[in-house]
Amino acid sequence: MQREAARLLQTGKAIAFVPTMGYFHEGHLALMREGRKHGDALIISIFVNPTQFGPSEDFQTYPRDPDRDASLAESVGVDVVFAPEAEAMYDKAYQTYVDLEMLPQYLCGPSRPGHFRGVATVVAKLFNIVRPHVAIFGEKDYQQFVIIRRMVRDLHLDIRIIGVPIVREPDGLAMSSRNTYLSEDERRSALSLLQALQQAHKNVAQGIRDAGQLIHEASELIRSYPYTKIDYVAVCDPETLENVSRVEGPTLMALAVWVGKTRLIDNTILTIDY
Ligand code: AMP
Questions:
Q1: What is the mean pLDDT of the chain?
Q2: All structural domains of the chain
Q3: Which one of 112, 193, 229, 231 is most buried, by most CB atoms within 10 A?
Q4: Which residues contact 272 (CB under 8 A, 6 or more apart)?
Q5: Which atom of ligand 1 lies at the shortest distance from residue 175's CA?
């Protein structure tokens, strides 16, 4: 991959890059189509990164389908699929990590210790291997997106980070490789995430500004569905991810909910129209 990236750079090609863990759905393909617009060469990676999974998480069972992924990637104009082995990314003596101070402490951080350290580390490594001019990330993983953007600024990486809005199923569920874990009943309860966010939009439009009240109503709505267990519902600053007490400008509402044994996330930006 490093040789191929050097060759592309020598011929003056701009490289667009989409890192993924594979098992593609339309969300991944939207990132690739966006990438196609920004580079002469479009490179994607498929790597289920062991360092971003906790010991009791689904690293072993994470869904994988490399053949289907390769043909989907080809259908949207991907030039190179980089799918390294774990041993090539982390040898036995591996010991270097990228740690951000504040952003990983919020939202998903407390329930996934070490997750964002693994994410920032693998993305930094992939950036050094692929050497992209532009990299594309989904706003579904909003915290990941702001962490990567911050890391790129902090480390002076000369890479433009582009965010792509959440791609949803026809009924509104945010697409995720993990949706395949849901039973039919759980799949119905999974709609509570989007409904809670939509209700918050309505509440803000009706003049409710108090974060506590918005969180309370969202939580009640989610709890009214079977199989759900709330990890967090947060209303926070979209840059720093710090909680806010009132919605005054564009404000992130983010949530994580267990539906059965599957942890789902979703988010939206609440805005006030004057
Ligand atoms: P993953 O394979 O889950 O690590 O995701 C790879 C990239 O696709 C990340 O930048 C995700 O944020 C993005 N992504 C995953 N699901 C969606 C979605 N439903 N809409 C937009 N982007 C997504």
A1: 97
A2: 2-164 (3.40.50.620), 177-268 (3.30.1300.10)
A3: 193
A4: 204, 209, 247, 248, 249
A5: 19
